[in-house]
Predict the structure of Transcriptional regulator, AbiEi antitoxin, Type IV TA system.
Amino acid sequence: MHPVLRAAAERQGGLLTALDARRAGYGHDEIRSLRSTGEWVRLQRGVHTTAERPARLGGRPHAVDCLATLLFLDRPGAVVSHGSAARLLGLPVSDGLERTVRLTDPDQWRRGSTFRMNRAPLDADEVVRRGPLRLTSPARTLVDCAREWELEHAVVAMDAALLAGATTAGELVRVAAAQHCWRGTPRSRRAVGLADGRAESPLETRGRLRLVGSGLPAPELQVEIRSQGRLVGVVDAWFDGAAVAVEFDGRVTYTDPWRDRTARQVLWEEKRREDKLRALGTRVVRIVDADLGDRWPTLAAEVAALLAIPGPAVRRFTATARARGRRRSA
């Protein structure tokens, strides 16, 4: 490959344009021949990559699609945004989210069969760089998505970003306030108001929203229960007046145990911890993903009945909410 063309490909995550090729002296017939032999692969009209694929993008298909679209449009001010930015930032997205490349440009609206470019202002602090790609910042991405997504999906993504330290509650509030007259703003403000970075999994977020949606009080999250100064356990959610703990059990807890424990060890430790909590006079409710479906009205009624009964008059424990959640690591 000509050095000029190689340099262009290195700047562009392994992608190159027909214009790059012509600048390096490649003619139309030569480009067509390289495509026919499989040495070059066409990604967009006038945008190609080599058979080795773009190494700088880590082989991520959507990142390749985004970069190819940006090169095709040749809009220096455009950035990857909305659901596309959420994917590239590693935020949780719904399995049903469309694969359309989403972009934002301060000066132009445009739409194609594989992309959609919104026209909207972009502040300098709302743009970040990931390799050869420019994306909307986590806060801007989350608020943009929340204006379009279902509330639950938006709050799950916000909770995950807050937990990871990718953004702050203040940043979300600021970005949402700056979009005060944009379409979908009431949706994004509702999501921001419900976000809580102490939720340590999507199931915890979804379960919390179900509890609140059932007219139950909002629980405290990630509460340390101690007895005689010793930590008995940290519960996912806590209703203090009734001394009711809620634990959200995701299947990953048992299929991918933390800190090299076996599934059997996890189950045994969870049982012992729950027994200790109950011995202190607390009640424990366990919620699994399946409970959030058709069974939810029955379970919500059971939780409401527990909350109607006051906790022990004399407590042999203390309950203290953590300021923030903790990400699991091996």
In short: The longest strand covers residues 230-239. Residues 3-56 form one domain. The chain has a mean pLDDT of 89. The chain has three domains: 3-56, 61-194, 208-321.
